[in-house]
Structures are given as structure tokens and as C-alpha cells.
Amino acid sequence: MSFLNHIRRCNNADLSQFEPWFVGPERAGFIHRDFAPTLASRPALFGHRDKAWHLDPSLDTPERRSAAMRAFLLELRAQGHFKGLWREEAYAVTWQFTRPALLEMERSAVPWFGVRAFGPHMTGYVRRKDGLHIWVPRRSYSKPTFPGQLDNTVAGGQPAGIGLHENLIKECGEEASIPPELARQAKAVGYVTYWNQSGAQLKPDIMTCFDLELPEDFTPKANDGEVHAFELWPAGRVFETVRDTTEFKYNCNLVLIDFFVRHGMLSADDPDFVPIVEGLRTREPEYTT
User: Fold this and answer.
1) Which of 63, 86, 113 represents a domain boundary (last residue)?
2) N or C: less crowded end of the chain, CB within 10 Å?
3) Mind listing the pLDDT tens digit of every residue in the chain (289 residues)?
4) Which range of residues forms the domain containing residue 138?
5) What phi-psi label fits residue 146: left (phi over 0), alpha (psi between -120 and 50 degrees) or beta?
6) Is residue 288 part of a domain?
7) How far apart are CA 96 and CA 284, in angstroms?
8) Domain count, the chain
């Protein structure tokens, strides 16, 4: 493995397999050709024209769109879709986080519609006499997704109706028992983007990166069952583990690579420095039909 391998692994999408999905005049996501027949089975809700999919235009408010979409997705769940991953958590459907949501959609359905997801990913670090250390959690072995893999110190999906920093503070308490007064000190330091495809699912996502310097005498503790355990690693060990292995959840590698760049752990003379930095903020792949 290498840092560039992780970036390529996260950016494997082939948009030639997808068609855009519109809500009114705004593109809301992408529909894979294998998922398209599912939409075609509901022509009153999803129309197809000009090589694109369109939500019923009579659904003219976010509330009406959300209700119609939820009813449709519940039907799919009853038919066995989502394979037990249903979260009962609504995500905002919007291409830019600061824009009003076109509608809200169940989290587990978001990648099936190629909708952009957002979320805070925080690196909690400690400055010790022997150098920089990072708190590394291992995901619970009972999690339905990526069980037992290493993760960012605190991270979470972005539910509708809450800000990124507010969500991070909530996740800090739930995942790591970090009290709000400490979690509020986390600083937004950038973002990473990627276009990842898994079969018919597409994740054109943005992760907002946060740093939080933690006191030496503070130890994160698993609180909600999402984390198996936390370990404090020297930053050099984290660097090598990301560079040389696939032990971290695939997209969490990007957040840590960004941390390494910002904290001067990656030499500017490294021949991959520029493509690594550019690759952390991937532009939309070329779309052809």
C-alpha cells in the first residue's frame, strides 16, 4: 500500500455506469444502471428523460418530497433492500452543505441514489515529551459496517437539522466520552473529498476534518458500543500503519493523510507530495453517457 493507493481506492467511481438524478432543476445525485429498474417500477414517482432521472415535479416542497421518498424506501426495505443496514436516521439531500435541503432521506439509502453525504472526522492528538501521539479507536466487532477496523478518533455521519461542529460535539460524547467543554475546542482544519463506488452504490462525499489537542491525562472511553477500544499510538506508528496497510477504514485514511500533511510529517520533497495533496480534494470525475 501507499498513501496514493488509499486515495485511488477511495476514488474508483466510473460515472459512465450512472445517470444523474434531478430534483427540480438541481442535480441531487446519480443512479446506477443496475438500480434504475427499481426506479422505473414507480413511474409516478420517478421519470426518465434526456438520459437523466427526475423526481415527480408535483412534489414541490421538501416536506412532500421527503414523505414520498420515505414511503418508497420503506417499501424497498420490506422487499429486502438495505440488508439490515436501515438506520432510521435522516440525511439532508443537498450538493452543498450550506444550501437548503431538497428533501431528507434515510441514511442507508443515500449511496443508492448517489447523494452526497457529509460528516465530521476528528483526529484527537496529544503532545508528549517524546513527540506527537494520536488516539486510535478500533471499531466494534459487532458493527454492521467495517467491524474491527481502525478509525478516526471520533467520526460520524451528518444527520439533517444539525451543524457539523454541533454534531461533532455530540459524537465526541457518544463515541469517546469526551465532555462538551473539551469537545468544543476542536478546530475545523479542512476537508477531504472522494468519489467511491461499491457496485451500484456511489459515495461522492465530503468529510470535514477537525483536530483536537487532548490533555495528557485524558483517556477516551467507549460509550455507545460503536468502539471496541482506544489506544494511544505514536504519530509515527499511525503514519506507517496508514502508509503500509489497510487496517484503517478505507475513507479514514484520507483524514489521517491530511493530518500528516498539515503537521509536517510528509516531506515536500517526497515525489508523491503534490499528487497526494491534490488527491485529498478530488474533483468530480468526467461524466460520459
Assistant:
1) 113
2) C
3) 899 999 999 999 999 999 999 999 999 999 999 999 999 999 999 999 999 999 999 999 999 999 999 999 999 999 999 988 999 999 999 999 999 999 999 999 999 999 999 999 999 999 999 999 999 999 999 999 999 999 999 999 999 999 999 999 999 999 999 999 999 999 999 999 999 999 999 999 999 999 999 999 999 999 888 899 999 999 999 999 999 999 999 999 999 999 999 999 999 999 999 999 999 999 888 766 5
4) 3-11+117-279
5) left
6) no
7) 14
8) 2
Q: Let me know: does 39 contact 29? Beta carbons within 8 Å.
A: no
Helix spans in 79-227 (H): 164-176, 180-183
Q: Which three cell numbers stand for residue 265?
A: 510529517
Helices and strands, number each (H, E), in the chain = 8, 12
Max Cα separation, the chain?
65
The C-alpha atoms of residue 273 and residue 268 are separated, in whole angstroms, by 6
**CATH code for position 71:** 3.30.750.160
Q: How far apart are CA 145 and CA 254, in angstroms?
A: 18
CATH at residue 196: 3.90.79.10
**Does residue 286 sit within a domain?**
no
Q: Say yes or no: 134 and 211 in one domain.
A: yes
The residues near 215 (Cβ < 8 Å, ≥ 6 apart) are 126
- How many Å is the Cα radius of gyration of the chain? 20
Which residue, of 74, 92, 113, is where some domain finishes? 113
